[in-house]
Amino acid sequence: MAKNKLICSILFTLTTLQTLIPHLNLSAQHLKTVDKVVAVVGDNIILLSDIEMQYAQFLAQGNGPDEKIKCFILQQLLTQKLLAQQARLDSVDKDVNAGMVDDEIERRMRVMTQRAGGQERLEEFLGRSLLQYKDEMRTDIREQLIAQKMQGKITEKVNVTPQEIKRYFESIPKDSLPNYNTEVEIGQLVIHPKLNKEEKQFYKDKLESIRARIKAGENFATLARLYSQDPGSAKEGGDLGFMDRTGLVKEYAANAFKLKPNEISPIFETEFGFHFLQVLERKGEQIRTRHILLRPDFTQASLKRAQVHIDSIHQKVVSGTLNFSSAASLYSDDNETKFNGGTIINLQNGNSRSTFIPVDKLDPQLFLIIDTMKVGSYSNPTLFVEQDGKKGFRFLYLKSKTLPHQASLTQDLPKIKELAYEDKVNRIVSEWFEKRRQKTYISIDTEFAACEKLKDWVNKNPK
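The structure assignment produced for this chain is given below.
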């Protein structure tokens, strides 16, 4: 099973390695190697420089020297090449367009720039301009996206039946069954303060004065750095990079896609605050914009209105005239939970949509509230502050609580189902790779002959 899981995690790990921030100059002179072909997969080659670049990033992350990591990097690249090659044969590569590649490049650049502490420092670390680095990344990122699409196609129809779940559970030795800590299911109903017309006008006027300065000739990027309260884009002069409609809130998208390049929108409101934007470029359904955002500071009057509102909802729920799930769906301002009847999803559980959260993984603020609650009860509404500084009121519902126990099929069916599903996916992907390796010419340079995990990859006489 460990081998299967390693194969399935290859693409994810590859993407992670390639987005790490180098804390040293990665220019050619620092790689200190003469480039050569180290592997061939069908009609694709892998260069030594590809491996050395990723190894340099591995070291820059603070890891100690470990030549064995190069074996793992090469295995990742072999996997990517094999998936991408099959994707081209199956025309899956056509599902990845230039806009998607641009979007992924911009996303990675924003993350890397933020972690490096600015564009200048990042360029110093890379030993080249961002423009040059983006151009160098393009081919490999496109191939990564194609490989991810292909892996998704391989597993898109995978499902597990109740019989398969039962067989999987029974195949686990009793002394190897997982142990689960105390877990809870929690619902929350959140109300954020809302500004009235007069309060909103204050921010609109302030933003309109900045917009007028740009219209009069001042630099948009400079004013974005000075005034925008979007922490992700302010340092970039408000630039959000290429995105499609699905990556933008609907009000932002509606304004962006009706403008021509260089046009500036009127002021509009979203869940994040008040904005205006400028369109920089458009490529089909991909659009590059920059914006200036002002996040409103809510008044005491708006907080009082929110408190009165949530108190009235709480009273209805506690009295039984309105059930919690309906109340959350109707009134909650938390978009991550309202469409789930207010129930909080365990986001730390990989791709699972489990609603069970171990108490040791619970937000400390939530734990303090539910620690003394009984199952089926509701907390009183309280003021809280979100990670981005946004204030609101909420009350909690303790839906269920399980004590520490060893896994059982009756008590932990959703978790066992997830494990059975992952096991089946791993087996299917592993079988797919084994078949493709047998049919594909694969050659690996003798420099990597000592890599134990690569020995199964070599097949000089494909069927």
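Interim note for the steering committee: The CA atoms of residues 37 and 47 lie 5 Å apart. The longest helix spans residues 413-439.
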